[in-house]
Design a protein that fits this description.
- With 195 residues, the protein is of the alpha+beta class.
- It has one domain (43-193): Nuclear Transport Factor 2, Chain: A (Roll), CATH 3.10.450.50.
- Helix content is 32%, strand content 25%.
- The chain is built from six helices and five strands, in the order αααβααββββα.
- Strands 1-5-4-3-2 form a five-stranded mixed beta sheet.
- The protein is globular and about 90 Å long.
- The protein starts with a helix and ends with a helix.
- Mean pLDDT is 88; it is low at 27-34.
């Protein structure tokens, strides 16, 4: 009986050695895309985080770039382009909650694996210890499925005003948008996909 047990143990050991049971293997690919969010300890990080959140369609990373009056002493405001404000009256009194809902709705209407990006071209900036003012020409692209809104691209000029919160993290508390070409502005995306 003891010889039988020894034979079984030796057979099992040889089996384990030949089937590479104890060798390390390559790690599996993650099931989710990684999100590149960095705490915005300087104003330029807000811009990178915003661009990454749009490209990766991440609502939490997107909304983290804006001042939440529940956390900061500044209320987020958005001033839409005049022509979009006429077409979409809902953007005339825009809030942090509206910003979140708009981006959630936009993501819900995204084409599977569709392209989304924000290209910023700086035109002016001024930065102090606790406030930053950036002016950009932009191209915002977001491929979506809504047939009632036939474009995927907006162009215009925007201004971001940022400040730090109590923990020293920078966020956008004021955003204004204006038209520079015949294309629609980002305000139209907000009007269409906002509530």
């Amino acid at each position: 009986m003891a010889a039988f047990r020894i034979a079984v143990v030796i057979s099992f050991s040889l089996f384990c050695l030949t089937c590479n049971l104890f060798e390390t293997r390559e790690p599996e690919e993650p099931s989710q895309t990684s999100f590149n969010y960095v705490p915005a300890t300087v104003p330029s990080i807000v811009l990178s985080n915003l661009q990454n959140a749009i490209a990766q369609k991440s609502i939490e990373n997107y909304i983290s770039n804006f001042s939440d009056s529940a956390v900061t002493n500044r209320r987020f405001t958005f001033m839409g382009s005049p022509e979009a404000s006429v077409q979409y009256p809902n953007i005339r009194s825009w809030s942090y909650t509206d910003e979140r809902e708009y981006f959630q709705n936009l993501i819900a209407n995204a084409i599977a694996n569709g392209f989304s990006s924000l290209l910023l071209t700086a035109t002016d900036s001024s930065i102090t210890a606790d406030e930053a003012n950036y002016d950009f020409d932009y191209i915002f692209t977001f491929e979506h499925t809504d047939p009632g809104f036939p474009t995927n691209t907006a162009r215009g000029h925007l201004q971001f005003i940022m400040a730090t919160d109590q923990s020293g993290i920078w966020t956008i508390y004021q955003w204004s948008d204006s038209k520079t070409t015949e294309d629609i502005t980002w305000s139209s995306f907000k009007g269409k996909f906002g509530n």
